[in-house]
Design goal:
Synaptogyrin; 235 residues; Marvel; transmembrane helix
């Protein structure tokens, strides 16, 4: 019975049509981690967008706090915004996922989650290295008052944390894929023994052939002829 119940599930969710339970949904590790990634992306682009541009006392135009490299600020703001939207989209997909009835569509959704999570882990690794390097080589005379220093360090720190949160998200997706693949395979190979007598045993086909041979042999055996009568035995 346990195997049958496992076969009724695919890729970490039961049959489609079940009621949505918000409490259970937000207690899932994958949902919690996705919310953490979503929060980190807000911190990164929020810090740079609000305090990532400074200027010298004798200047009017503001420049990026990371060594006056506009590409560094654009990278942090752009990737942070896209990561925020990505998290929101996959949160919606997580809510809708149990309603997907097709096993193939569930497989595509899980593979997309793995690929996107791995991609963002790489993106934040590049972003962390880029921002840390530009912050290290920034000239003190470009920002003598050290304005926005806390925001810059926060962006670098949360970019570093995002590497691991997205990597773990990809790992959880891979675990979900393995579980789903095994469950889907089981549900495809499982045959109810009560529906087909031959499926109760892996030798069902051979047994049927053997029984048929016995019946054929019995039908071809000469019938007993009683006309010869009873022959007594001499002692």
């Amino acid at each position: 019975m346990e195997g049958v119940m496992q076969g009724m599930q695919a890729y970490g969710a039961g049959k489609a049509g079940g009621a949505f339970d918000p409490l259970t949904f937000f207690q899932q590790p994958q949902t919690i981690l996705r919310l953490v990634c979503w929060l980190f992306s807000i911190v990164i682009f929020g810090c740079i967008a609000n305090e990532g541009y400074v200027n010298r006392p004798d200047e009017i135009e503001e420049f990026c706090i990371f060594n006056r490299n506009q590409n560094a600020c654009n990278y942090a703001v752009g990737m942070g915004t896209l990561a925020f939207l990505s998290c929101a989209a996959f949160l919606v997909l997580d809510v809708y996922f149990p309603q997907i009835s097709s096993v193939k569509d569930r497989k595509k959704a899980v593979l997309a989650d793995i690929g996107v999570s791995a991609f963002w882990s790489f993106v934040w690794f590049v972003g962390f290295c880029f921002l840390a390097n530009q912050w290290q080589v920034a000239k003190e005379e470009d920002n003598p008052l050290r304005e926005g220093a806390d925001a810059a360090r926060a962006a670098i720190t949360f970019a570093f944390f995002s590497i691991f949160t997205w990597a773990v998200q990809a790992f959880l997706g891979f675990q979900k894929y393995k579980l789903g693949a095994d469950s889907a395979l089981f549900s495809q190979e499982y045959v109810d023994p009560t529906a087909d007598p031959n499926a109760a045993s892996p030798m069902g086909t051979d047994y049927t052939s053997y029984a048929a041979d016995i019946d054929t042999a019995a039908s071809t055996e000469p019938a007993f002829d009683g006309s010869a009568g009873y022959q007594g035995q001499e002692y």
